[in-house]
Amino acid sequence: MVKILELASNEIVQQVSELYMQVWKSEDLSIKERILKHSTYEGFRGFIIMTEEDRVIGFAYGYTSLPGQFYHELLAKELNEEEYKLWLQDCFEFVELAVHPSFRKEGYGKMLITKLLEDVNNKTTILTTQMDNTSARSLYESLQWKVLKAPFYPGNSKEPYVIMGKELN
């Protein structure tokens, strides 16, 4: 049995950053600061999945994508005017999703995505993921996300990404 909670307290954010580093095999300590910064953005929503033993095994978060934000500007450069109006003008930016490797393929990613987007009032949602991350891409495609652009090289990345979007009701 698991429970879904809001990503709120500092203790939870600490567990989330540890999970992030474990999932992405990263030493990126700035994830905690990024989450805390993003939590101040308009429309921020974040959820975690915890075991009965109060261990965070997955999380997802995002916020309203607005001009002036780093990733909004990065994505805006990749889209033409018509695509920008459709996808970024009234958009919820899906920033992160991670599920602990030993809890994958159990529906937790889908639960987190569904919960995160449940009460979002934006017209669209957009995300990026690595082009070769086939498990993430197939998860998103099973939830009716579509590829908007591939390849996409965010910032100074040499690794190709894909921009995916979904229209919301």
TrEMBL record:
Pfam family name, one: Acetyltransf_1
A molecular function annotated in GO for this UniProt entry is: acyltransferase activity
The entry's protein name is GNAT family N-acetyltransferase
Q: What is its EC number?
A: 2.3.-.-
Q: Which InterPro entries match?
A: Acyl_CoA_acyltransferase (IPR016181), GNAT_dom (IPR000182)
Q: Which UniProt keywords apply?
A: Acyltransferase, Transferase
Supply the CDD domains for this chain. Answer: NAT_SF
What SUPFAM superfamilies does the record tag this protein with?
A: Acyl-CoA N-acyltransferases (Nat) (SSF55729)
Domain N-acetyltransferase: residue ranges = 2-169
Q: What superkingdom heads the lineage?
A: Bacteria
Which organism was this protein described from? Lederbergia graminis
